[in-house]
Amino acid sequence: MNRLLLLEDDPNLAKTLIKYLKFNNYEVDWAKDGEEAVELSYVNNYHLYLFDINVPLLNGIDLLKSLRDAEDFTPTIIISALVDIESVTKGFMAGADDYLKKPFDPEELLLRIKVKTASLQESITFKAYELHLQSGEIFHKGEPLFLGSVQKSIFSVLIKNQPNPVTYDELMNLLDRPSENALRVNISKLKKALNIEIKSIRGVGYKII
To answer: For residue 8, is pLDDT > 60?
Structure first.
């Protein structure tokens, strides 16, 4: 089930959308202000963001900018009553993937959500990295990422399993000559090459964070 984060300060609209989206098999977390949305985005993984602009504490545009600066490239649809070209432009410049003007038909929103989440079934994203499931190719900010076959396999399985760890046994099976030292070396090379954090979970395995 796809999980969405809704930033909306109108409780009536929010409750209506949550009910409608849950009926259509989406899990929805609701943030009533920008700071609450920030906290939720840090502790949970979402398939899509739905952000209003004029909300308390931190507006949707500034929130989206801060998330993109932090290399959070989760697809985002802005839903706003601001319909002037300047506001729409600011939304897209901040990193929005789509912009829906209020008032809107919930069915139209659902269609746009389906379009954005359908593409996620073809690829998995982690920060600025994207794994294409069919081809197995990995991209960084849209550019192909070239790794050795073993490191590519390790990175792919880490992405597929995040935020959960991958067991030592699963990772060992990806090595040409399995050993604890070989696994540590490959993990170390990945961390250095990609500038990412790969955490060792004692007695379990590794996870990317």
So the answer is: yes
